[in-house]
Amino acid sequence: MPGWVREIVEGKTKKLFGYIIWKCLMDYMYAAIVTDVYSYMGHVADYNYTKLAISWILMFGFLFLSEQIKEGLLKVSYEFLIVLSFIPTLTVWWTKNENSTAMTLIALYWCVWGMVSAIVSKSKMNNSFYSYLSQNRDCHPALYKEKDSNERTTTVMMVFFISMLIMLYFSYKYGNMRIIVRLGDVYNYRHAKGNRMSGIESYVFGWLSTIVLPFVLLFFLEKKRRIFALITCVLISMSYSIYGQKSTFLMMLLVLGISLLKNINFQKAFLNYIILGLNIVAILACALEKLKITRWGLALVERLTLEVAAGHFYYYDFFQTHELLFLRQSILRLFMSNPYDNAIGIIIGSSAKYNLTGDVNNFNNGVFSDAFANFGIIGVFLYPILFVISLQLYDNLLGKVKASYKYMILCWLLLYCMSIGYFQWLISGGFVVALIMLKLYRKYRLRVIYKV
After folding, report:
1. Distance in angstroms (rounded) separating the CA atoms of residues 63 and 21
2. Residue pair 370/425 in contact by the 8 Å Cβ criterion
3. Where does residue 68 rank: exposed (0-12), middle (13-18), buried (19+ CB within 10 A)?
4. In Å, how far from its chain's centre is CA 164?
5. What distance in Å separates the CA atoms of residue 303 and residue 309, rounded to the nearest whole number?
6. Res 155: pLDDT
7. Minimum mean pLDDT among 76-80, 207-211, 304-308: which range?
8. Residues 304-345: pLDDT tens digits?
9. Nearest residue to 23 via CA among 61, 70, 47, 55
10. Alpha helices (H) along 244-265
């Protein structure tokens, strides 16, 4: 990374400036573009300027809270979600004049998350096993460096070829070997895929496209295996053409960006680069839409931020007059009666009250929405604690896994937790799979180096 880039990006003051730009972009995007382009979906304007002022106060308040978290993975996770979830929620709150009680509970949710993160990050929750492995031992790792590199490359190549065969199978069976699809067709393909894939296939496809292939892509980029990296990008694009998940391309951009961030302190500076990248993407999305060139960038940013943020208010409103889930749409549905005939995401997403088109739509939502839908106010306190414990476990168990891999997969896990429930996130969201894969990668490397 060139020194002049570091001078521009890194530093707390520059990160704060990035937050301010992001907040302005979210407000502008919703008020000037989203309310025009997506008004048919319920994105209408009802500005409340008192709430606008309060939204800025809340943003700075939560940024102050984030500074109480010790530098590390928990701090990066919290600030990442503040940027992509809480700040867009503030935008929706004042531009749509949404319910203030809901906003208070959402703020309480993120307050609990931040306070628990601050407490845990300063406690002694270090994994002694990795502390032991990091000590000097009677061995000479340099003697095994070449062997270690060659064997790991062979293993990743094997994973790559297996992944390629599986993705080609999925593309042949469900995607007609498409490499890319038009933005307007993604939901049609998504519904078709969802109705045809078996449960096991859905799990494998999700893990492959969101965890395994990005990992392989980053490995090839760092090893300068450009042809294999290009093929991996094509495979990721094929996965998009099957399911139409726009965040797939965001992850590909993220991997490309991380491959350029050599020798940076991920704990201290990673969020600076993330905010810079998000601001660039948002500016380009607004410009391309205003110039009538393409709406693809706007759809990507809006779906990952403002759409999810609006969903929190929809879920709160729905469960004011409906029975809470109490995990009865999780695996516990096998043992408990479900009060609803359909998935709650489809019920809310297809309601004409929240989606003015009245079309059938699946509006899964995570973090606050999932917490409130299952346990109400209790969930607002409980779920942030569960997430923080899970993320600390992720950090502890992975020990000294290379930061670029650990933080790349972390970003996907955080993106996904905004869209699905916590317990679904653990399995189908890839949390457990990511732990196992990175743990095996680290264990394999240690076995080679230390002859364990």
Report:
1. 14
2. no
3. middle
4. 24
5. 9
6. 81
7. 207-211
8. 899 999 999 999 999 998 999 998 887 666 677 888 888 888
9. 55
10. 247-260
Half-sphere exposure of 400 (CA within 13 A, CB side): 12
Structure tokens at 257: 């960006």
Lowest mean pLDDT among 64-73, 100-109, 139-148, 285-294: 139-148
Residues 24-32 have a mean pLDDT of 95
Q: What share of the chain is helix, strand, coil (3-state, %, to 5)?
A: 75, 0, 25
How is residue 169 written in tokens?
Answer: 């199978």
Show the tokens assigned to 20. 């301010």
CB contact set of 380 (below 8 Å; sequence gap of 6+): 105, 108, 109, 112, 368, 371, 372
CA-angle at 104, arms to 103 and 105, nearest 5°: 90
The Cα 275–Cα 66 span in angstroms is: 15
Q: Which of 429, 401, 46 is nearest to 211 (CA)?
A: 429
CB 294 within 8 A of CB 288: yes
Spatial CA neighbour of 276 closest among 21, 73, 12: 21
Say if residue 36 is exposed, middle or buried (CB neighbours under 10 Å; 0-12, 13-18, 19+): exposed
Which phi and psi angles does 325 have, rounded to 5°?
A: -80, -40
DSSP-derived letter for residue 334 is G
CA angle 243–163–181, rounded 5-degree value: 25
Whole-angstrom distance, CA of residue 56 vs CA of residue 53: 5
Cβ–Cβ under 8 Å, residues 213 and 409: no
The phi, psi pair for 283, rounded to 5°, reads: -65, -45
Structure-token match 């208070």, residue found: 104
Contact 360, 93 (CB under 8 A): no
pLDDT of residue 176: 81
109-118, 172-181, 321-330: least confident range? 172-181
Tokens coding 19? 């937050």
Average pLDDT of span 236-251: 79
According to the model, what pLDDT value does residue 167 have?
A: 92
Both structure tokens of 142: 């340099």
DSSP 8-state code for residue 100:
H
Distance (Å, rounded) from C-alpha 260 to C-alpha 176? Answer: 34
> How far, in Å, CA of 97 to CA of 337, rounded?
36
Cα separation, 178 vs 170, whole angstroms: 11
State the Cα–Cα distance between residues 306 and 304, nearest whole angstrom.
7
| Local structure of residue 70 (DSSP, 8 states) | P
Q: 127: which 2 tokens?
A: 């994994």
